[in-house]
Amino acid sequence: GQNIDQPTEMTATEGAIVQINCTYQTSGFNGLFWYQQHAGEAPTFLSYNVLDGLEEKGRFSSFLSRSKGYSYLLLKELQMKDSASYLCAVSDSNYQLIWGAGTKLIIKP
Amino acid sequence: ETGVTQTPRHLVMGMTNKKSLKCEQHLGHNAMYWYKQSAKKPLELMFVYNFKEQTENNSVPSRFSPECPNSSHLFLHLHTLQPEDSALYLCASSQNLGGGTDTQYFGPGTRLTVL
Q: Which residue in A9, A37, A98 has the most chain B C-beta atoms within 10 A of its own C-beta, making it the best mutation to test that interface?
């Protein structure tokens, strides 16, 4: 079966760095997405990786290792507004998105 | 503002009611999606439409009936729902189906409660 694993919840301190991991087992791979979802709001696109390596976008970076079936989202200089759920999703061989259950990130002052 | 709107934002209905959820995208996209989001569970893809044609129906019970009159509008008709159908229903759109550039853009969702 297809499976995406990510931690259920993480806590970090304002101004610090946090890394949210995602491991996947899917039938085929056409890229991995990270979305941010604030409580009661729509998921919003953060990043897309299809090649191995690190993609940096401001305070957020996303890393992919296809051979390991592994990705992480790195958030630097954490702000209170970063408190949200972070969703990992993989596009499989049929270009259908397989979603993880999300990681709830709690930022403390 | 993501360019995808959904109405209503909240809906409470009885098991014998019939209601419809509406989604509209203002992005000029060709593909539209319905997802179900339950607490602490992955997003569940329900239906996919591409150029108004349904391309996916992921074993969704017939009490959920989608309708896509054009590429900008998507409906989800609900009838004789069960309490376990209570969830957040999200609509999304993308330029096309598949491919890394086809990022999905989501609406704010309809919070559905079935009594």
A: A37
